[in-house]
């Protein structure tokens, strides 16, 4: 795996070192996990904000509801349920 250098503040480095020591994982592993969790959290926050904006636009929200209703009929496709 390629190795790159990223500058972080002393407090962040200290916290990273402590988390790594407590978890028994490398600082790189702890940092990678933290970045992935932050990425997922940001993705959900952005999706939630976009959904909230959609709900504020009554015409767009109505079209969304119509589209959902159209797709809901595909659930009854004659296939047996698991």
C-alpha end-to-end distance: 42 Å
Strand content: under 5%
How does the overall form come out from the CA principal axes? elongated
Query: Mind describing the biggest β-sheet?
Result: none
Poorly predicted residue ranges: none
Strand segment tally: 0
Class from helix and strand fractions: mainly alpha
The overall average pLDDT, rounded, is 92
Q: Can you count the helices?
A: 3
The residue fraction in helices comes out at over 70%
Radius of gyration: 22 Å
Q: What letter string, H or E per element, gives the SSE order?
A: HHH
Structure, briefly:
With 82 residues, this protein is an all-alpha fold. It is built from three helices and no strands.
Describe the protein's architecture and organization.
- There is one protein chain.
- The chain is mostly helical.
- It has a domain of 57 residues.
- 72% of the residues lie in helices and 0% in strands.
- It has three helices and no strands.
- The longest helix is centred in the middle third of the chain and has 30 residues.
- The mean pLDDT is 92.
């Amino acid at each position: 795996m390629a190795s790159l250098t990223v500058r972080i503040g002393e407090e962040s480095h200290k916290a990273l070192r402590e988390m790594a020591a407590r978890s028994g994982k490398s600082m790189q592993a702890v940092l990678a996990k933290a970045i992935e969790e932050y990425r997922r959290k940001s993705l959900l926050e952005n999706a939630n904000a976009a959904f909230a904006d959609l709900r504020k636009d009554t015409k767009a929200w109505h079209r969304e509801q119509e589209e959902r209703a159209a797709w809901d009929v595909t659930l009854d496709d004659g296939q047996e349920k698991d």
